[in-house]
Amino acid sequence: IRPQQKRQKEQKKFVEENKKGDEVVTMGGIHGKIFSVEDTTVQLEIDRGVKIRIEKSFISQDNSKKTEIKK
Length: 71
What we know:
With 71 residues, the chain is α+β, with helices and mostly antiparallel strands. Helices cover 23% and strands 39% of the residues. The termini are far apart. A hairpin with a 2-residue loop joins strand 3 and strand 4 (50-55). The protein is built from one helix and five strands, in the order αβββββ. Strands 4-3-2-1-5 form a five-stranded antiparallel beta sheet, with helices on one face.
């Protein structure tokens, strides 16, 4: 139970610290950049001018610090 509580606490902290400009991945696998942050939702820009609104709790990871492999 303890490790699960720790993961839940870390996930909650991660979700609350998201800010405009962070690149994230949703639980559904959608990659995007945070366009705006509201109380319980965020707007993700997934392509030029294409924005979607999702619940904060559905953000699963931060891609801002990951480096992309160039082809």
